Amino acid sequence: MITGAQALVNGLRDQGVSVCFGYPGVAIAPFYDCLAQQTEIRHILVRTEQSAGHAASGYARMTGKPGVCITTSGPGATNLMTALATAYADSVPLIAITGQVSSQLLGHDVFQEVDTTGTAEAFVKYSYLVKNAADIPRIIKEAFYIANSGRKGPVLIDVPVDIQKSSFKEYEPGEINLRGYKPYTKGNSVQITKILKLLDKAKHPLICVGGGVILGDAISEVRQFAEKTNIPVVSTMMGIGVMPKNHPLYFGMLGSNGKPYANRAVLKSDVMVIVGARVADRAITTPNNVEKNTTIIHIDIDTAEIGKNMGFTIPLVGDAKYIFGEMLEKSAEGNHKEWIEELQEIKKSCVDPRVFHDEYVNPCRFVQILSDKMDDNAVYVADVGQNQMWSADNYITKRGRFLTTGGQGTMGYSIPAAIGAKLSDENRQVVAVCGDGGFQMSMMELGTMRQHHVPIKIVIIQNNYLGLVREYQHKTYHDRYMAVSLEGSPDFEKIAEAYGMPYYYLEKNEDIEKTVDEFLAEKGAALMVCRVYELDQVKG
Amino acid sequence: MRGIFSVTVENRSGVLSKIAGLFARRGFNIEQLTVGETDDPTVSSITIVSEGDDRTMEQIEKQLNKQIDVIKVRHLNALHSIEREGVIIKVNYTRSNRLDIMEICSVIGAKIVYMGTQSLVIEYFGEPEMVQSLLLNLRPMGIQEVARTGELALQKEQK
Known about the structure:
The complex is a heterodimer of chains A (about 550) and B (about 160). Chain A has about 550 residues and is of the alpha/beta class. Chain A folds into 3 domains: about 1-170, Thiamin diphosphate (ThDP)-binding fold, Pyr/PP domains (Rossmann fold); about 190-350, 3-Layer(aba) Sandwich (Rossmann fold), CATH 3.40.50.1220; about 365-530, 3-Layer(aba) Sandwich (Rossmann fold), CATH 3.40.50. Chain A is built from 22 helices and 20 strands. In chain A, the strands form 4 sheets. In chain A, strands 3-2-4-5-7-6 form a 6-stranded parallel beta sheet, sandwiched between helices. Chain A has a 6-stranded parallel beta sheet with strand order 11-10-9-12-13-14, sandwiched between helices. In chain A, α10 packs parallel to α13 and α15 crosses α16. Chain B has about 160 residues and is α+β, with helices and mostly antiparallel strands. In chain B, the strands form 2 sheets. Chain B has a 4-stranded antiparallel beta sheet, with helices on one face. In chain B, strands 6-7-5-8 form a 4-stranded antiparallel beta sheet. The radius of gyration of chain B is 18 Å and the shape is elongated. The interface of A and B includes residues 126, 179, 304 and 308 of A.
């Protein structure tokens, strides 16, 4: 005989889970009791449930396997929702296990009851409300398969506490049989040939890469294809890291917060291949204009993304790794010297109109120096706000990873996600860069870092404002500032001291190199405040 | 443009709410919705009538296909499908309108299935257009209540 709770733990173990992130409570207590009796799965106690989801997301994005997060029912589950929505928007595979009140009490509004599966419906790939303990082995197996196949995403398993306690005879996951779910499509070869012909004839071809290229493990195929055919590349925010920053074919991040020359490249292109990108409003603000002048080839694993936000000429549903592998093999070498030169001219002519106050640190220079000095394979986790834009804009890509929340822009993501990333590979250097607003949304996680010895580095870009909103109020409401001052923030040095972390303070441009060197040389966790001028802008 | 989607889904609790939620969340219209078990008790059939432009219709089909509980989606075309609707109508009945009602029923092929002292109940199953026509013609008599199945649809043999 085996209990439902034991089956949950066995299921996770069978899927090769070695670490999970969670927060206990009575409705998930039987599961925790089973966790207590084993050593294969390490449990990281976060300080709020939202962080469990973000940490699992950081872990998943680094390992390519679903991250596991666990909470109790009611408020535990609702606290997790923001993290699920964040992961869903960025197609990150998660398995969320939530405790639930006893099945015979469901619907009675008892203590700590919420309709968890109903609440999460709009932002999970799939969800289960377990009614029978004997189903658990199959459900766990299915859930991992669904989360990490096709377009990836979070899967929720809500388990009433009586089901966790109840016993059944035999642990037998069986075969996966999801007749309505066929996530694997390689990519139609006729379409591939058609695309290659179009690209061959194009005068101004362009490739726009999105986060799907990274999720689909297709970075090297896409890069090699661009190099062989000499087609310039632009990127969405989630696609940062596909191309090295200084690559001669790379023309930066497009969109309202991106490089003007990347947007010019889009408008001037005659054939554009969009791959693994949803082309949402921040990336291409005027899809209709682009549609008119450009032949659009849209490649995505999710059929529904093609044509959702933008028209297309050639749709191609399938796996980016396979498709670009095929295209690489079948394509002829290309030469678009004039087009590349034209783009380089445009790039040179785009002068940055911003003037950074020299009283404090120039955030762009800081991000360049920091990311350059970081290990070649380091992980840079950017939070949300001005700091994120400065990071995306100036991060120097080598062999490392750039993690951020492009879809939802969830403040407070960076610290828990960095914890998850670090736990995926303790030998990798991980740096979280956040603003003073985002930091205060997650600073309780310094406790998690201390308890579980997670040596990540945290940088707070401090300007005493919710900077991106302030910048918006400056431009849109003519400096009528409302609710953007962070007056009242704590003394961050004392916070670092309270958690036993070394503290660095940087406020002068000439000190960047030295301070960053010392900061990165720290063996354990460390906190740095990088003071920037209050009114520094993301856009000129 | 009007579109009929015939969707086969896993017969599990919560599936209808997932489908209805999808329509609400993405701003798709539901004009009519019919659900029932098929001959296979593990499969239910949902017929949804919706309204929107070509792009919306395409998105509805794709988003339905994305649902893991959805087994198959057919976007039906009037020429290649059979559409039917059932209705029961309670209508005011007096000596003076009795013949009119009987005549309407006999022309359309509807049946009187209940006869009270002041009301009649009429049943009809047929093409959706004829259901409309029946309701339209009975309206002057004073319709008290109507219950409709919503449109049912099946694809014809593929040629």
